[in-house]
Write a structure and sequence with these properties.
Structural class: alpha+beta
Oligomer: single chain
CATH architecture: 3-Layer(aba) Sandwich
Order of helices and strands: HEHHHEEEHEHEE
Largest sheet: 7 strands, mixed
Number of domains: 1
Number of helices: 6
């Protein structure tokens, strides 16, 4: 979900630093490295914590594979149109988006080394990814991102409801963070029963069920 062009060198240094710092909460989670899967595992089953959990809308969640890397990077790139609005050379902007993707990936890996990295599919086609982590008594939704054409069709809602079902089965809470600049996401989470528990300058931390 997320934030960049050609400017004089002194400003560029500070600006790039700000970009790197932009990898926070909802986009502040990390992606665990994707491991190659043996050929016999290509028909991947859902992760154990989703066993028996209903997933509607012809959706499926499966572990990410090495060959999903190009899709994941494209998905991130398509979420950074905010950077493409900035004046400057398009090649320069695209290189910044790629740099941000690598920085986010490294940040996620350092912060959530045991996170589950999932691909969202609809009728066998990749439409998004989810990153979720377990720690102590909670399940934390680190990141959820869908292809632009897959948004607004209930797929995100169905995926989050499935995670809520998994959290309920495990007797844990489901937590997440969202940016103040993304009121649409907050409205969705409120509709799904999440409550705001903490807030800072950039984000709100939400949880389901509320205490």
């Amino acid at each position: 979900m997320n934030k960049t062009s050609h400017v004089p060198y002194p400003k560029f240094t500070l600006w790039c630093f700000a970009l790197l710092q932009d990898s926070a909460p909802f986009c502040n989670l990390r992606i665990a490295p994707i491991s190659p899967a043996p050929s016999h595992e290509k028909s991947i089953m859902p992760p154990p914590f989703l066993a028996g959990v209903e997933l509607t809308g012809n959706l499926a969640l499966r572990p990410a594979l090495e060959e999903d890397e190009a899709f994941i990077q494209l998905l991130y790139s398509l979420s950074r149109d905010d950077l493409r609005l900035m004046p400057g050379d398009s090649h320069f902007v695209e290189s910044l988006i790629a740099m941000q993707y690598r920085a986010q990936r490294q940040s996620y890996s350092a912060s959530y080394p045991r996170a589950y990295h999932l691909i969202v599919e609809k009728q066998g086609q990749q439409i998004g990814r989810i990153l979720v982590d377990f720690s102590q008594d909670r399940m934390h939704l680190i990141d959820i991102n869908l292809m632009p054409e897959a948004r607004g069709q209930g797929s995100g809602t169905a995926a989050i409801k499935a995670l809520q079902g998994a959290a309920a089965k495990a007797g844990s809470r489901l937590t997440l963070s969202t940016y103040h600049s993304n009121p649409g996401a907050k409205r969705l989470y409120l509709t799904l029963g999440f409550k705001v528990e903490q807030s800072d300058e950039l984000t709100e931390k939400m949880a389901w069920p509320s205490l």
